[in-house]
Design a protein that fits this description.
5 helices; mainly alpha
Length: about 130
């Protein structure tokens, strides 16, 4: 993990994101206004945030890659579960592709200064108060 003042907080928030993603994927869908297939934006954003959060939380590129692979597997598994384990959701290959694209874009933060964004937030929230 990165050098946070409160590492457990950031890891717990990332894990909470996983739980929310799973729960929201398996509960009945909510019809949102917008053009056809606009739900793909939500899929992209959810997996982008989870992937970016992994980049912000973990220090090594290996950890970033492993988190990205796990998120892609989660996205595929959720579509499989929707298709085969629920009667209220439908699995969609396009959703899995949107999830994967979100993961890839989030992972790309590894190669930018934005990979340190959460460390800056942590420093501003917690370290300045302790000094």
């Amino acid at each position: 993990m990165r050098g946070f003042a409160v590492p457990g907080l950031w890891l717990a928030l990332w894990l909470l994101g996983w739980v929310l993603c799973i729960v929201l994927s398996l509960m009945p869908a909510v019809d949102l206004p917008g053009p056809a297939h606009s739900d793909k934006i939500g899929h992209f954003l959810a997996y982008f945030i989870l992937s970016a959060w992994a980049v912000w939380t973990f220090r090594s590129r290996r950890a970033h890659l492993l988190a990205a692979l796990a998120l892609v597997a989660l996205g595929v598994a959720m579509e499989f579960a929707q298709a085969n384990l629920t009667k209220v959701r439908l699995g969609d290959v396009r959703d899995a592709l949107a999830n994967t694209l979100g993961v890839a874009v989030g992972l790309s933060l590894t190669f930018t200064p934005l990979q340190f964004a959460l460390e800056r937030v942590d420093r501003k929230l917690f370290r300045t108060r302790n000094m």
